[in-house]
Amino acid sequence: MTKNIKLGIKLNILLAIIFLSITLAISFILSRILENYAEEIVADKASLLIETMNSVRQYTSSQIQPELSSRLETEQFFLPQTVPAYSAREIFENLRSNEKYSQFFYKEATLNPTNLRDKADKFETEIVESFRRDVGSREGKMADFQKYGFRTIPGGELFYIARPLAVNKESCLRCHSLPEKAPPSQIATYGKDTGFGWKLNEIVGAQIISVPASEVVRQARDLRWLVIGRVLIFLVLGIIILNIFLKLTITDPINKMSSFSKNLSTGDFSVEFQHESNDEIGILARSLNRLKVSLKMAMEMIENKPPKS
């Protein structure tokens, strides 16, 4: 099948295969690089925000809670400002009031929360349960256990970071062990049915922060196609330039030599093949010219040879 294909077409097919392979390789490598880069960008945002929320929690626990805890026994309604999770959530909701951060989400998803707005949904429940299994199956500090990844919601794609929430202080059990031990204001505000039965060192929830990733991912994909498009343009230009070079230095001289040889085969010795370069084509051209001279001499010798008597 390939016997009837011209040399230029064969070279173009070979170049097309090589350049296509290069393009696919570049596309794959670039995709991986840009995906990792996009993930790093959104992960940095999420990590910064979750550390900020932890600072808020620490501040509430160390400075606000001691000042207000005594009032929980006397107030008619519970003071949620004493709860680190409440403070962090409220501050984050204030941040979300800015249009720029409206698609950022923070939640301390809990399996059995006092405040039902912290109730874990199906996705969050799976994360909490996986933390419980991981902590139970391997050793390590609670801070070492972290999950992250992408999550698709109706509004777009989110990147989330989740960390386990455990009961690590005896003081937490004041409000979460038994209803009889809880402050009266808590019972009056939230009732006796939720937020109890917690145990020391038990993982009760997950601290989850989600940041929008759709825009970053889209920009990474646009950049990938832009780079691939530029690469294809340069590859096509390379093919064109290489074709011109091959035509001028190889295929055209070969075609001329073919025509020259055809004329020689018919006895036309008036033509002269000129090729000034010293490359392989030039060597072949000089050989053909010597062959022409040799054939001409041989023909003349035959013609001038006297006939036998």
TrEMBL record:
<feature type="transmembrane region" description="Helical">
    <location>
        <begin position="12"/>
        <end position="30"/>
    </location>
</feature>
<dbReference type="Pfam" id="PF00672">
    <property type="entry name" value="HAMP"/>
</dbReference>
<dbReference type="GO" id="GO:0007165">
    <property type="term" value="P:signal transduction"/>
</dbReference>
<keyword id="KW-0812">Transmembrane</keyword>
<dbReference type="Pfam" id="PF11845">
    <property type="entry name" value="Tll0287-like"/>
</dbReference>
<dbReference type="InterPro" id="IPR003660">
    <property type="entry name" value="HAMP_dom"/>
</dbReference>
<dbReference type="GO" id="GO:0016020">
    <property type="term" value="C:membrane"/>
</dbReference>
<keyword id="KW-0472">Membrane</keyword>
<keyword id="KW-1133">Transmembrane helix</keyword>
<protein>
    <submittedName>
        <fullName>DUF3365 domain-containing protein</fullName>
    </submittedName>
</protein>
<feature type="transmembrane region" description="Helical">
    <location>
        <begin position="225"/>
        <end position="246"/>
    </location>
</feature>
<feature type="domain" description="HAMP">
    <location>
        <begin position="248"/>
        <end position="300"/>
    </location>
</feature>
<dbReference type="InterPro" id="IPR021796">
    <property type="entry name" value="Tll0287-like_dom"/>
</dbReference>
